Amino acid sequence: MLEKENMLKLARMKMPFGKYAGRVLIDLPEEYLLWFDKQGFPKGELGQLLALCLALKIEGLDEVVKPLKDGHTYRQ
């Protein structure tokens, strides 16, 4: 899941629905992601990205993704 494309999607894709609709995925509150974890993540790519986002936040790695919002490139 820690692929270049997924990191860029977390930094640039916006939440399509709900209380935080329009907010970039990496900027979603951890509590909101924990709620999805308990209730069930949406199916498909969005759910996978939200689960990845939560894992990064739990490990304190979300700050690594945030600079990508500003157009910085990801290097492996």
Q: What is the number of domains?
A: 1
Shape: globular
End-to-end distance: 14 Å
Mean of all residue-level pLDDT scores: 90
How much of the polypeptide forms β-strand, as a percent range?
under 5%
**Could you say which structural class the secondary elements and strand pairing correspond to?**
mainly alpha
Q: What characterizes the major β-sheet?
A: none
What is the β-strand count? 0
- What pattern of helices and strands is seen along the backbone? HHHH
Protein name: DNA polymerase III subunit epsilon
Key traits:
DNA polymerase III subunit epsilon; mainly alpha; 76 residues; QSregVF_b; single chain
Describe the fold and architecture.
The protein has 76 residues and is mostly helical. It has one domain (4-70). It is built from 4 helices and no strands. Helix 2 (30-39) crosses helix 3 (45-58). The chain starts with a helix and ends in an 11-residue tail after the last helix. Pfam families: QSregVF_b (PF12843). This is DNA polymerase III subunit epsilon.
Please provide a brief summary of the model.
The protein is mostly helical. The protein has helices at residues 4-12, 30-39, 45-58, 62-65. Helices cover 49% and strands 0% of the residues.
Provide the fold topology.
Layout: H1 4-12, H2 30-39, H3 45-58, H4 62-65
Helix pairs in contact: 2-3
